[in-house]
Input
Amino acid sequence: MAQSPDVEKKQSLLRNTSFLVETIYILIIIIITIIILLDFVDTGFFLGPYRFSHWMGIIGSTFILVFAPLYYILKRRFPQRYKILLNLHIFGFTTSFLFVSIHLAGQLSRPLQFYPYLFRYNLITLRGGKKLQPHTNRMLHVSLISGLYIVMIVHIVLNFILA
Output
């Protein structure tokens, strides 16, 4: 008796090294975020003019802001390097997610006016293992990156222009 295609996909997914590495990496990110949230690690120390947690947010969001449009261009210009670009996209954005998570966890001890950041986390976890159609996945990617651009513009205006 043949197995259904869904079972075969799940088996091959569990044998996919990249998927397993990214899953472990995301679990590590969750653990690091919880450790920071429980104040076992302090990210509020200053490193130059900004707190360490701010530098993590700046580095993570800058990578996303620069690499997202660059990835879009490069995958069309160099289709033969798509697999390398996709791995860089996945690992780079996951690392950026780590940096932004460190920033978020460091900021959660601040007043309640800063809590809308939690909304972005809910959007990121919205997919939650459900298979989305390609156009839905694309819309989710575009909406998340658009939201990040808006958040970064507001941060820049409030912290550098109006400060």
Q: What stands out?
A: The first strand starts at residue 46 and ends at 47.
